[in-house]
């Protein structure tokens, strides 16, 4: 299994540094989830966190992308590779200790018909504690690693979007990890711009609520909320148009990242997000 993990990490790195395909554009078959903490995209957030492990100021950084590989006629379906790296740093220490890093890579198959879209994927996640965090905190290490199957269905309702589905863990460490997870959410994007942001263009309101409930945590719900202003950047030479947003964000529930999944965490903060 270590060979699989190393191969996944190398493939994920290749995805992160690869340019988008010429066919890549803003009209995705299944749009990225705004408030899902594990949605692969580029972001940096400053958070005030309360948890059994860390209480104080934490920076959360993500590097990720969902790159289309094959697209069907009339964009009805698409196969892509999605990879993300999610890290948290304790800003209350002298060296801004790295707390945890999650590596995620998956192969989504997405489908759209009218206002209805769906995403099915198999993905791998492995989690790793930072060296300085281990030296300073001496935590009980958990070798969290798993492969999971996910299915989500979304429906566009004007400026709103609702989605729901779940996951099932196929292989996992530790061995007693319970496999079920339910996932749902609601998103809103204002149809028109509400303010002009310099030369970037018109900013529109975006807000989202994401909820996950895992069997491992006896179906306790983790709530992630985001609200802010989003600007659609002009498409680059390869046809990729991205959304740049400044978001207020809050989270409460089981820790969404890493080896602290048995702990509860609350956080509020602000982040800058860049995604297709």
What does this structure look like?
- It is a single chain.
- Helix content is 8%, strand content 58%.
- With 276 residues, the protein is mainly beta.
- The chain has one domain: Phospholipase A1 (Outer membrane phospholipase (ompla), Chain C, Beta Barrel).
- Strands 1-2-3-4-5-6-7-8-10-11-12-13 form a twelve-stranded antiparallel β-barrel.
- A hairpin with a 2-residue loop joins β6 and β7 (160-173).
- The longest helix is centred in the N-terminal third of the chain and has 16 residues, at 2-17.
- The model is unreliable at 14-26 (pLDDT under 50).
Q: How many structural domains does the protein architecture include?
A: 1
How much of the polypeptide forms β-strand, as a percent range?
over 45%
Strand-pairing-aware structural class: mainly beta
The largest pleated sheet is described as: 12 strands, antiparallel, barrel
- The main sheet orders its strands as 1-2-3-4-5-6-7-8-10-11-12-13
Helix content: under 10%
CATH class call: Mainly Beta
């Amino acid at each position: 299994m270590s060979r699989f993990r190393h191969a996944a990490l190398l493939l994920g790195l290749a995805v992160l540094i690869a340019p988008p395909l010429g066919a890549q554009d803003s009209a995705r078959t299944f749009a990225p989830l705004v408030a899902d903490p594990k949605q692969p995209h580029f972001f940096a957030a400053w958070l005030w966190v309360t948890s059994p492990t860390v209480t104080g100021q934490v920076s959360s950084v993500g590097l990720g992308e969902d790159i289309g590989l094959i697209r069907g006629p009339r964009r009805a379906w698409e196969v892509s590779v999605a990879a993300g790296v999610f890290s948290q740093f304790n800003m209350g220490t002298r060296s801004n200790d790295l707390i945890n890093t999650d590596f995620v890579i998956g192969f989504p198959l997405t489908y759209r018909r009218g206002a209805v879209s769906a995403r099915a994927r198999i993905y791998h996640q492995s989690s790793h504690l930072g060296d300085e965090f281990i030296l300073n905190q001496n935590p009980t290490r958990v070798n969290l690693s798993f492969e999971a199957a996910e299915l989500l269905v979304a429906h566009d309702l004007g400026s709103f979007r609702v989605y729901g589905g779940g996951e099932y863990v196929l292989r996992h460490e530790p061995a007693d990890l319970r496999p079920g997870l339910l996932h749902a959410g609601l998103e809103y994007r204002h149809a028109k711009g509400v303010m002009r942001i310099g030369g970037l263009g018109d900013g529109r309101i975006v807000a989202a609520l994401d909820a996950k409930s895992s069997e491992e945590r006896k179906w306790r719900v983790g709530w992630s909320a985001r609200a802010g202003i989003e600007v659609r950047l002009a498409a680059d030479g390869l046809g990729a148009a991205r959304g740049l947003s400044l978001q207020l964000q809050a989270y409460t529930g089981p820790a969404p990242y890493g080896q602290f999944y048995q702990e509860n965490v609350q956080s509020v903060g602000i982040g800058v997000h860049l995604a297709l």
